[in-house]
Design a protein that fits this description.
single chain, alpha+beta, six-stranded mixed sheet, six-stranded antiparallel sheet, binds adenosine-5'-triphosphate
Length: about 350
Amino acid sequence: MSTIELQNLTKSFGDLTAVNNVSLKVDENEVLCLLGPSGCGKTTTLRMVAGLEIATSGNILIDNKNVNELETRDRNLAMAFQFYALYPSLTVGENLANPLHAENLSEKEIKEKIFEIADILQLREIINRKPHQLAEGEKQRVAVGRAIIRDPQCFLFDEPLSRLDVQLREQMRGQIKEVLSDLNKATVIVTHDQLEALTMATKIAVMRDGLIEQISSPHDIFAKPENTFVAGFIGTPQMNIADCNISNINSSVLEISLLNQKIEIDFGKTLDINKNENYFLGVRPRSFDLVDAETNESLSGEVDLIENMGSEVLLHINSNNASFRTVQSRSHKIKVGEKIYLKPKKSQVHLFNSDGKVIAHG
Ligand code: ATP
């Protein structure tokens, strides 16, 4: 069995709490992505798991065993960090073989493993090259290969794809996910790239200022954000989040005032809502349907600016001097200055309280 568990893990550097009371569990065969803006504590968390940083407080369990006091080399983890170090005098094949030398394998077994990994990571053609003859992306793939070629208990990756060009990144995301899903190990990947997290993870932990804001499946992180930070951080273009208040409540249907307009939204259940309080309403730019005329379930506004996105356009809508954005098909042939009517799609609207905590998705 291979699991990683963090219990109330905290790391302070002087006055700065880089990681603040983080608890999470990564099960066998789970890929957890730590995702968040620069400086939120992702790498520090990973380094503590690896034993490269000593926790100020809390526990790290690998396979249910407390490893707080264990040296890195005794934790049986495989790591691939952003700043990979390949042996410059060894070929790609020899670099891949290096971690296997301590494993008591026959020459034949080592060769088979090298070719297996080389195939997965498309390294066959460069297997006899030395690091100085490799492109940056190739070096990174060798580093990933070296990390997964042994049979460690768990995998830790820090921005493993950061040096790859866009096309290769896309291919590698899928491939690494496939490789990891066959290995049945707990894996933690640090990334600031949400697409990387959404495609590779089975579970995402969104961090901010050392704290975990939400841990959920990639689908739920996107579709059911628990607060306005996660809602705004995940998804491009960014979610529209506007101040609002509730002007009328009719069982599960709320009449919401925002952008100096009123809109009715059915949340499917009666909510604990107070008419006198302030709320935030969140709707992703892709979560609006274009409708022909104003209804009590639509918002309206004038198109201020159109950004071309290929087959789609990003429309900046001016509504009573406030603005929001929507993505629509280019085929609608919308023009600047046009008044349009937009109805939020069912189950793609998010209501948050004044502290930014979610109240309902509807
Ligand atoms: P990035 O994506 O930029 O690497 P991150 O989310 O991985 O960011 P960390 O590298 O974990 O963030 O850093 C968290 C905070 O801790 C930052 O404010 C950073 O400056 C600080 N920090 C990290 N390592 C040290 C250290 N050795 N000494 C002092 N402060 C540190």
